[in-house]
């Protein structure tokens, strides 16, 4: 049906999938499509087609336009019926009526697979906002709103169908984008909570409820509805999630009326009021910042996606980011793996682009790996929309990245925003111009009334408002900054204060300061209105890379009355404030990007940049010292606080690495626990770079080696990890240095991965002793876990079980949420050979606990064990799900050591499922890898027996051929093979 569409109004008006060139013909067809099959009188058509500017001979002009429209659409489809004209198309020939019909059929369809197909077909009909460029105008607005609500209903129904099909993971991926687009739409929140619960993520489900409660309270002063509260209660009670929901009973669904029947329906006027395509009643909630006057631009950018990278270009403050977010919300449902937004405004150099993108994907890469290679690695095979926002200051690096993705990841669609094109092959540049006059006035009025509810555009002030918009070149950000002044000045006074000379953008080419001039003047004008102390504070706040707390601001400004100054800057729209009333925590402040750029220039001119940047870096060090180690009952909150400051830590390390390496070393050293919990790529790269510089790192040198050893161990380079451990020990300041315990623990881990069990246990014992002496309870518990695993792998299961149970009881009593996944995992892992059923229950509990607190390392190792245990139980589907998640987890983190361990579990699973050829190929590939650690104990015995079984079933020659194929694959190719077979039915 989609391929045979005659007239499209769900996006740019098109006939036979070809855009209609004439804007007037587009408008005529759009007016008639509001009431398909119904007669629209000549007078009404003239009024609607030529709003406010009807030609002198209106009827004759209409007849001429009808003739042109018939040449485009066909004479039979546009019938003359006194007293006017009617659009006569079959229901399936107009996309809006086709979508409504598919919706009705889907509501009556019992079979979930068929229902999913109908809903997908309906959603595929949208190519942009309904009625595109006319959506914000009368008479289109009511019908456009109802069609957009129909789209939301279809999206919600499609997510529900994923749940009905037993695919909660797919539903989560779909719903996270939809909820982000419309956070107040409670049905979507309810579906997301249900999907997370069914996906085995109760912690995330409860977090989704909490987020909804917070948004409702902040925005509307309301509480969640009974359905979502009931879901929350079920999750809190630990009730098992249903595997699927019974399909709804068929609802009576009359077919859309045919044109002949529609002729006897209510009049055109009443249909305009009620909507020709009205879906069931619902109340969509506001989400992203409202767009005014951008319907056509939204349709244009949306329509350009899919045919090469799209770059949305325009001057600062023109609204590129807002439009990109709306595009992502509009089309996100059509990308199976969702939307990834990489905010590049906080990166300082081109070298930071790739790590920022990897972090945005949520899959950090390994230490020592080229981050530019990590981006294709983590996106390979994913069908996503990647939004690269604010690329202008790192345009060369972004261009290189986009070219690399085009060559290696054809399923990734790129949308970039920049003040200039990227200049890459196949790029589709979409300029975003300033607003039209009417839209600029409307935006100014809306923002001004938000600042002062008594404000309105009237006949008395309209000329002054229009002049303000004209002098501000109709740039949305400039209008917002100026509109905020309506609290204290009139439009006429505002117009008089603005710069007299208009400065329009003169060149689309790179490198001209004239591109920046108009908004620069607006920001400078706002800046000059500030008091002297406000300017001083604002200049110094420009050093922050992202958002910041009041404490951090106080440390770098030295302003005694900072609260009052911050309040004034927020009030004047130069600083934004984010307050979370539902959860305790500091208010976070931020500068608009263009304001930040402006005040950094002022700071440079004053010669204060170096001094303020030093304060910033020293405050980052002070923050980490105040936060302390990630230990104790509030360890998860400490971790969240550190992650919230990551942009600032990145900026502080970058500056201090160049100007004060010892300070940079202090910052890296303080993050050693974060490296262990999150396997964060940038942290390991920072440590490697500091050590490679061969400069004095002061007393933090042993700790920097420890962080580098963490990264090398995760990357599978065990020799390099051991070298860092040895170098760190040589740099210890004294025998009692707390870093000695960390280095001993890392020695234990490296020896364990290398198969040296006795050495691992001995090093773990030493780490435990040193941790006790240093008062490091977290490290003591981790060392015990390491020792117990070494002992159990060496055959002493009974002793390990008793001690693991005691350790878990102690950790539970301590209330440390980051240690609990490890202690529960250890209890399960030491039981694997003696009591696999009990071990599985414990390890799956460790998975749940790790997910809830963001303990990435524990989550990954637990998933590998779940895969192995479910395989041995004969639960092939359950093992496949755990294996697929495990591979994505380890490849995303760049952890080669554990990735190959996870693949060994996949080999066992595939052999159990009868996929001998693929199992043999993977086994051959694993034998050729040198970064997965040694095989030993029960694991070695099982894989040896498995290879013998495969040789017996396949024959030695076939086994060798498969093994050679596996050895010839590169690392990503080997993982891709495993992923492909795990996804197969």
UniProtKB/TrEMBL annotation:
Instruction: Identify the SUPFAM superfamilies for this entry.
Output: C-terminal effector domain of the bipartite response regulators, P-loop containing nucleoside triphosphate hydrolases, TPR-like
Low complexity bias located where? 260-274
Quick one: signal sequence residues?
none
In terms of superkingdom, the source organism counts as: Bacteria
The question of whether Signal is a record keyword is answered with no
Q: Which Pfam families match?
A: AAA_22, BTAD, HTH_77
- UniProt biased composition (Pro residues): 243-259
Q: Does the keyword DNA-binding apply?
A: yes
Q: Which segments carry the region annotation Disordered? A: 239-282
Q: Matching PROSITE patterns, A to Z?
A: OMPR_PHOB
For this UniProt record, the keywords arranged alphabetically read as follows: DNA-binding
Residues the UniProt record assigns to the DNA-binding region sit at 1-89
Gene3D superfamilies the record matches: P-loop containing nucleotide triphosphate hydrolases, Tetratricopeptide repeat domain, Winged helix-like DNA-binding domain superfamily/Winged helix DNA-binding domain
Protein family according to the UniProt entry: Belongs to the AfsR/DnrI/RedD regulatory family.
Name by which UniProt lists this protein: BTAD domain-containing putative transcriptional regulator
